[in-house]
Each structure stands twice: as structure tokens, then as C-alpha cells.
Write a structure and sequence with these properties.
By secondary structure, this protein is an all-alpha fold. Among the domains are: 1-32; 74-106. It has helices at 2-34, 75-105. The two termini are 47 Å apart.
């Protein structure tokens, strides 16, 4: 009963908080829309100067490089994976067979 009351209070508090934050954000946004954000220009001086400076252009390029392997056909990894997988499957089958025998023995 107490847990239910606490959960209801948390839910109501969360909803009230969300409404308050939304209202404050909307009010601040509306005030920013209504205000003038301009400045008066006092003077203008054109900048006209010719400069001849060589520019360096840099960019990133993606380069893929394949490093040579010691076993290009990957035979050793395939054989190792097959042996380990076979041993794991054999072990799993042995355990499953034992469990089946035990369940039938009941």
C-alpha cells in the first residue's frame, strides 16, 4: 500500500515537473521571438588589398592495405576451428546422452 502511494506521488511529481519545464521553455522562447536583436552600424570601411600567398591544400584519403598473411588460404585456422568445434560438440553430446539416460532411469 505504501509502495503504491509513493509510486503515485512520483508519477504526479514527474508530470508536474515536466509541465513546468515545458511552460518555462515556451515562455522564454516567446520572449526571444518578440525582442529585437539588432545593432546599429556606425561606419563601414572596405578592405581591398591583393595578397598573393601560395595555399596548401590538405585532405584525408582512405587507403586500404592488405597485409600479407603467413597462411594465405587460412588452412590452419580452418582446421583448428573444425577440431575444436568437433571436440566441443562431442563433449556436449556426451553430457546430453548422460542426462537422457538419467531421466529415463527414473
Amino acid at each position: 500500500m505504501v509502495q503504491s502511494v509513493i509510486n503515485k506521488q512520483l508519477l504526479v511529481g514527474g508530470i508536474v515537473g515536466a509541465i513546468a519545464v515545458t511552460a518555462l521553455g515556451a515562455t522564454a522562447g516567446y520572449q526571444m521571438l518578440g525582442s529585437d536583436n539588432y545593432a546599429e552600424v556606425l561606419s563601414v570601411k572596405p578592405l581591398t588589398e591583393m595578397v598573393s600567398v601560395p595555399q596548401e591544400e590538405c585532405r584525408d584519403e582512405l587507403v586500404s592495405v592488405r597485409h600479407p598473411t603467413q597462411d594465405p588460404n587460412q588452412i590452419a585456422g580452418t582446421v583448428t576451428g573444425a577440431v575444436v568445434g568437433g571436440l566441443m560438440e562431442a563433449r556436449s553430446a556426451t553430457v546430453t546422452a548422460r542426462r537422457l539416460r538419467q531421466s529415463v532411469a527414473w
